[in-house]
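Hi R.,

Here's the chain you asked about this morning:
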Amino acid sequence: MAAIYPVILCGGSGTRLWPASRSDQPKQFLKLVGDRSSFQETVLRVKDIPGVAEVVVVTGEAMVAFVAEQTAEIGAWATILVEPEARDSAPAVAAAAAYVQARDPAGVVLMLAADHHIAQPEIFQQAAVTAARAAEQGYIVTFGVQPTVPATGFGYIRPGAPLLDGSVREVAAFVEKPDQITAERYLLEGYLWNSGNFAFQAATLLAEFDAFEPTVAAAARSCVAGLELEAGIGRLDRDAFAQAKKISLDYAVMERTQKAAVAPAAFAWSDLGAWDAIWEASTRDDDGNARAGDVELHGSSNVLVRSTGPYVGVIGVNDIVVVAEPDAVLVCHRKDSQAVKTLVDGLKAKGRSIASRKNAVSNGAETLVSTDAFDVELRRSAAGETVLLPASTIQLLEGVIEMDGEVYASGALLTLDTDVQVRAIGAATLLVTRPR
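And the predicted structure, written out as tokens:
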């Protein structure tokens, strides 16, 4: 069997998960379900698949630090290919395919989104091996998930005739997101959710780009021809990458190719696209409530409430979402979770920076305890913010910071003998104890 190269696409900001997810702290790096981010879960899910040779992450410059730190946090290693600009998924996937083909002409790419949730990683791994075997035979295989509800937020696949040993099937049609009545019919007719994850031989996909979108194929090969890796990071050539047409993989190849196949997958899957999906994927109590942070619920059911800022009390309500950040609070009915994007679009139209980046708490500090000998402060910093910390003992409660060229993750305990400047790589919360 050919070697497998998982390629994780790590772009986008997840505006439907505002105010937690914003451009300066995208959803794939947030710990929204459990103790690890969806990006970390994706890396852990693929790195031990039998036959994996190298994990590759494709991302933008603004997210390189997130990728490097979150892989280090879980003890994993990945090659990072850096897009000079966002040009939709096709140029990114093609560049990754060209990189894999240069490394291994027979290599099979397992292309995955960084922001999906899969509850049974062992079932996913089995499906990945099945898809990789079909990819060796020249098919471009997508994972089709068995629907559990007539969802209107996903695209669907109509499976066709069995292929090979019956483990995969032809793709009879890709269909767009349906209305409710159509989605109910799709369930009855055996349609599958289109998960947007694929397996293909790098050479096969590049040949399809040559046929359908030659500028994408040419740009990908040109980017890789002069690529140099430094500490596992390779920056794709800006001029070469700009020659690729801005187009999605679906439109560029999948809706045109005669080589599309679908591997029916039995694992529970979610694209974590909105707060109702986060509630669905979260651990819930006997009343159906999911909670995170300094929160308390009374007489409420089927509620998602999370806070990284103030204490939140919820009393006597059902089926709602409450998300509190230090600079913004969202309250909505769970069934209206998709409308959060409309809210964010309105903020952007008004020029409100709060739509796309997190603002630090005023003065960044809150005094918790003050004695004759010590002051204890809680300090919060927005992602990318540089702050001056006094001589003190610092405990990093949440986030990642950079100081004097070193990077520290949550849990770090540091003693500062002098005032020091630190930079928050992600939104950070620190406990600062300083002598008076």
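The mean pLDDT is 91.

Let me know if you need anything else.
M.
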